[in-house]
Amino acid sequence: MKISGHRRARLAFGAALGALLALPAQAEPASPPKILSDPATMAANPLPDFSYAGYGFGLAPLPADAGTVIEVTDHGAIPDDGLDDTKAVLRALAAANAVKGKVTLRFPKGRTQITEVLRITRSDIVLDGAGDGNGGSELWFPRPLKLIDNSHDYDELRAYLVREKKYQVEPENNIDYLFTEYSWAGGMITVGPDKTRAVSYDGSKDARDPVLARGVAGKQFGRTLTVDDATKLKAGDVVQLQWFSVDGPKSAILKSLYGDTDLPIGSHHWSSPDRPVVVQATRIAAIRGKTVTLGDPLLHDVRADQPAVLANWRHLEHVGIQNLRLQFPAAPAFGHHLEQGYNGIYMTGVFDGWVRYLVIDRSDSGILTDNAASLTIADVTTTGDRAAHYSVHVGAVHNVLVRDLKVENPVIHPLSVNTRSTRSVFLRSTVAQDGVIDQHSGSNHQNLFDQVTLHIDPKQDKGAWRYRLWMGGGAPYWKPGHGLYNTLWNARLVISDAVPADAEVAIVSGLEGPGERIVGLHANRRITVSYDPAPYIEATGMAVDAVPSLYDYQLARRR
């Protein structure tokens, strides 16, 4: 894997900057936090094993075998000539699709101009370049999806926006416009199985996936599942474990999601009965009789009153995008939910995929995910001056690891877990301005923000300094903001110099969700933490040096 000189310089600068911003020395716990070391605390406040997030359930290295290499220059692309290279790139992509086995579509050094959507619809393919820095490979996308996307992939989403009257209304800015379909969907590079439903917003069009087996018994956080009939299953298969709200608002899965909460639970959890409320894509590790060993732990119990099925799932495997710069023009930003579609990557229907060593400049959204699992997104930097919607959006996915993300551009939701996201992790991510954590409603649960660094600018109100760190979005029909076991671990707040060194800053939330764990939230000023509803909270104001990263700690224990 290539690391450009530009990236090496940026990494060295980041390390130096981190040293300059190091917090004052303070007393640290001599042992791991009680939530990891005290049996009574652990029993009352369980933590999922987040270390399964990422490619190969967190244990497998990302592939290095390029297979057959298809050079886009061999099909007519000429970098840096100022002319459009789209047709040449599409010819090269067609040649790559004709290759059996592993294939790499290689982009040259310099700028390659693309004005159509690149659609990746096969497994075992890598889009590769010469690096994301100076002298590397730049993909130049001068036009938004609003102009170039001629598909009907988002017709269902468009109809939903009209039906639900999804308008962005800002009277002070004279804005009263319908949301665009590209606010959270679509990408210049779109990955997903051909002829599959790109979005699911119309319940009347829902159809359950073919059932391979019905679950009989399984324990939450265990890896074994008893099924009624294992004859359609085999070791190595990737399947989806699906829980449905079979009893409407009284469904047992909703209590497993949210516990004994008094918070209202939105109707979208049960109003589309053919749409699962929780989805876990996993690989079958072993089968013995009717006992199936799964590749990762069960999100929830499986039992008579909380049934689940193992379903067939159309998906791609081993798709990678790496060593590239995705460049967008200096076009205006029309506002929140009014994005025109300067989106980098839209990755759907993928298992065991990856994105690494990318710079994405001036995007509306850098990377969007949906209906995917076991992805690693590593060493991505989003830059630019356009106000973006998402940097990396983790939505309707399972076991996604976002590692070493750097958010240098202004982003409304810089770190976001969205509808139906489960056991996904933001690890060592840095937000350079207006850092917030977005837990975006819609049964997202068991997600981890681990060792993240957020630069924030608190404001003074009536003599007190205050900052809202958790800024969850989502409509009321998908509330609460999150389910059980979402966790913030060892997060560092870098508070601006506008706040006096001896000041105390109140770190607050809006109304979020039940079962949050907040351990080791600390800053370069004294802080207090207020979260609604009441979370498990430990070691506020101090870094957890004994276990700097919960993900790394759990991964080491598995190894």
Automatic annotation (TrEMBL):
Record has Calcium as a keyword: no
Record key words, sorted: Signal
Database matches in SUPFAM superfamilies: Pectin lyase-like
InterPro entries listed in its UniProt record: Pectin_lyas_fold, Pectin_lyase_fold/virulence
N-terminal signal peptide: 1-27
Designated name of the protein: Pectate lyase superfamily protein domain-containing protein
Taxonomic source organism: Sphingopyxis macrogoltabida (Sphingomonas macrogoltabidus)
